[in-house]
Structures are given as structure tokens and as C-alpha cells.
Task: inverse folding
């Protein structure tokens, strides 16, 4: 990560350049945009962490994208990441 930029490489080898839009620790919100991509014309990904008791939380990921059809694989990749995050916090690998 450099400043408000980061580059994400998926398991498939595809790399995305992203701009960090929001990093709000109090609100527990992270937002980013995929940029400089010839296929994706507009994108905003949002991750919200909502407390659910003393030792629990709910993580919600949403994405708005044009063309809309590409939101499905991006959402799938985010789902894999969220499962890995869950395993890590539950004491898994």
C-alpha cells in the first residue's frame, strides 16, 4: 500500500489497483474503488463491521460496479476473503 493506493492480486493472478476511499475506525467502515481498469468503469466496495455482543461481530461486504455482471466474481472473491478472515479469528489457519 502506498498512501491511499493499494494493489490486490487474486488467487487467479489478476491484479487490481485500488484507491482507499474510507478508513474509519470509529465507524468500522472500509471503502475502496477499483481504478485504472479498462473493463471496470465504476466500482465501490464497502466493508462494515457491526458489533454483535461482547466477543462477536457481523461483517458485511457490498459492492457497486459497472458493468454489473462483474460484481459477481468480485463478490465471490470477497466471500473467500471473508471466510479466511473468519477462520483466522476463530483460531483456524
Result:
Amino acid at each position: 500500500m502506498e498512501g491511499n493506493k493499494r494493489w490486490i492480486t487474486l488467487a487467479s493472478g489478476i491484479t487490481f489497483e485500488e484507491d482507499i476511499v474510507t478508513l474509519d475506525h470509529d465507524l468500522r467502515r472500509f471503502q475502496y474503488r477499483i481504478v485504472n481498469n479498462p473493463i471496470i468503469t465504476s466500482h465501490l466496495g464497502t466493508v462494515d463491521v457491526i458489533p454483535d455482543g461482547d466477543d462477536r461481530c457481523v461483517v458485511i461486504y457490498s459492492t457497486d460496479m459497472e458493468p454489473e455482471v462483474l460484481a459477481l466474481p468480485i463478490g465471490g472473491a470477497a466471500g473467500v476473503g471473508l471466510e479466511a478472515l473468519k477462520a483466522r479469528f476463530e483460531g483456524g489457519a
Q: What stands out?
A: The chain has one domain: 5-89. The first helix runs from residue 71 to 89.
